[in-house]
């Protein structure tokens, strides 16, 4: 039986009845019926509907906040009971920035799923800024992000180090040099990630620290896009070695060493300060911290 409050929360977060119905595996009329019954129960309009989106009324905003609290307490009680039997089950909503979510985390998720087949896993991939927002709003249980995060609402734990490298197409003039000074990177075309991503933050800091000024930049909203652009000859870039190691091995990209420049960053685990303890989350964090992924 579907909890009407869970239906309400899903519609409120998706701002769309159709998407909420897909996530809940319900029909759209079924979702509408749950919302209508809640409005009848509380004697007020909770949502303003339009063809494109749903907007919460003041009463809807109040119910959304309370409903999230009730659902979290329900899950916490369920996890406490499972803990009595030393069982790990339930659902875990994980967020990851692109480099981690696309190139690192899938291997960990596969191991976790094999160890805990009763757990339903859901992975959301977005740039670091987006994952931080979703953790803050408690739409995700845990996040793994790249770059610096400073937020008093979050608990931030160091996870692992990541090596960033300068890459070019194999026939780019810099590739023939193998090692370059920062001065030789001036007036180059660069392919970069979008603002808000950890990779872009690293590139911006590289430019600020070295005084390197790109001649022209092309912006992509994924590391895959940047990588393919560089392979095609659209400038140079700094990317995680995780992202490009396969292309380096097959000779589709070339690594260029920049003399005297520290090219390392940190990955972090992030959780809301007031996140309710869950056995499934504890098990996932134990696996992450005990088996930090080897390159």
From TrEMBL:
Signal peptide: none annotated. Residues 1-57 form the HTH lysR-type domain. The keyword Transcription applies. It comes from the Bacteria. InterPro entries: LysR_HTH_N, LysR_subst-bd, WH-like_DNA-bd_sf, WH_DNA-bd_sf. GO terms for molecular function: DNA binding. SUPFAM superfamilies: Periplasmic binding protein-like II, Winged helix' DNA-binding domain. Keywords: DNA-binding, Transcription, Transcription regulation. Belongs to the LysR transcriptional regulatory family. PANTHER family: HTH-TYPE TRANSCRIPTIONAL REGULATOR, HTH-TYPE TRANSCRIPTIONAL REGULATOR CYSL. This is DNA-binding transcriptional LysR family regulator. The lineage of its organism: Bacteria, Bacillati, Bacillota, Bacilli, Bacillales.
């Amino acid at each position: 039986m579907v909890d009407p409050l869970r239906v309400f929360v899903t519609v409120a977060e998706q701002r769309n009845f159709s998407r909420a119905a897909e996530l809940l595996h319900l029909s759209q009329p079924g979702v509408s019926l749950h919302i209508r019954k809640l409005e009848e129960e509380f004697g007020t309009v909770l949502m303003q509907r339009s063809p494109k989106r749903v907007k919460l009324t003041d009463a809807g905003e109040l119910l959304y906040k309370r409903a999230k609290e009730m659902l979290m307490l329900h899950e916490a009680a369920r996890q406490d009971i499972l803990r009595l039997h030393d069982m790990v089950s339930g659902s875990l909503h994980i967020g990851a920035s692109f480099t981690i979510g696309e190139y690192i985390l899938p291997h960990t998720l596969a191991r976790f799923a094999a160890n805990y087949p009763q757990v339903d896993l859901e992975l959301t991939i977005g740039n670091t800024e987006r994952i931080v927002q979703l953790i803050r709003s408690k739409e995700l249980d845990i996040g793994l992000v790249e770059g610096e995060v400073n937020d008093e609402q979050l608990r931030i734990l160091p996870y692992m180090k990541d090596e960033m490298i300068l890459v070019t197409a194999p026939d780019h003039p810099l590739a023939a040099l193998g090692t370059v000074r920062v001065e030789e990177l001036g007036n180059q075309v660069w392919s970069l990630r979008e603002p808000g991503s950890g990779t872009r933050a690293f590139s911006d800091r590289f430019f600020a620290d070295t005084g390197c000024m790109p001649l022209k930049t092309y912006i992509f909203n994924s590391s895959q896009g940047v990588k393919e652009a560089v392979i095609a000859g659209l400038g140079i870039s700094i990317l995680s070695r995780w992202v490009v190691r396969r292309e380096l091995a097959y000779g589709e990209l070339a690594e260029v060493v920049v003399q005297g420049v520290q090219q390392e960053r940190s990955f972090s685990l992030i959780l809301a300060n007031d996140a309710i303890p869950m056995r499934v989350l504890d098990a996932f964090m134990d696996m992450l911290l005990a088996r930090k992924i080897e390159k």
